[in-house]
Write a structure and sequence with these properties.
With about 120 residues, the chain is an alpha+beta fold. It has a single domain, classed as Alpha-Beta Plaits, CATH 3.30.70. About 40% of the residues lie in helices and about 30% in strands. The protein contains four helices and six strands. Strands 3, 4, 5 and 6 form a four-stranded mixed β-sheet that branches. The protein has a two-stranded antiparallel ribbon with strand order 1-2. Helix 3 links the parallel strand 5 and strand 6. Helix 1 packs antiparallel against helix 3. The protein is elongated, with a radius of gyration of 15 Å.
Length: about 120
């Protein structure tokens, strides 16, 4: 998907995993959420993607990243979105040496901290 120094190609899955890590380290993110196409493929084909909530696409001379998230209750959505955009752009440009044209944030819902959810995250 992305060539580093014109020699080695970084697989889309690796780029998506790096983006996923940058998103999950951002304050205010409750979890990644599947987008519409992921829900369809899971329901129709029975397949789950490792990088749910992240979609990478190539554009002329760069990449576009779509991020699907649930925000944490009481989080300031514009601040969370801005922080995600900055974190993802910085991380992916660092590892791919490819310009990131856009990081689109799609807020799918709001998550509430419960005891069960905190235990799953640990």
């Amino acid at each position: 998907m992305s060539e580093r120094n014109g020699t080695e190609k970084i697989p889309e899955e690796v780029i998506a995993i790096c983006a996923m890590n940058a998103v999950l380290k951002t304050d205010g993110v409750f979890e990644l959420a599947p987008g519409l196409t992921e829900n369809l493929s899971r329901n129709l084909l029975g397949r789950d993607r490792l990088t749910k909530g992240i979609h990478i696409s190539e554009e002329k001379n760069g990449l576009v990243v779509d991020v699907y998230i649930n925000v944490r209750y009481n989080a300031k959505i514009p601040v969370v979105a801005w922080d995600i955009q900055e974190n993802v752009k910085r991380k992916l440009e660092e590892i791919t040496e490819t310009p990131i044209h856009r990081v689109n944030i799609h807020v799918q819902g709001v998550g509430f901290d419960t005891q069960d959810h905190r235990e799953e995250q640990s």
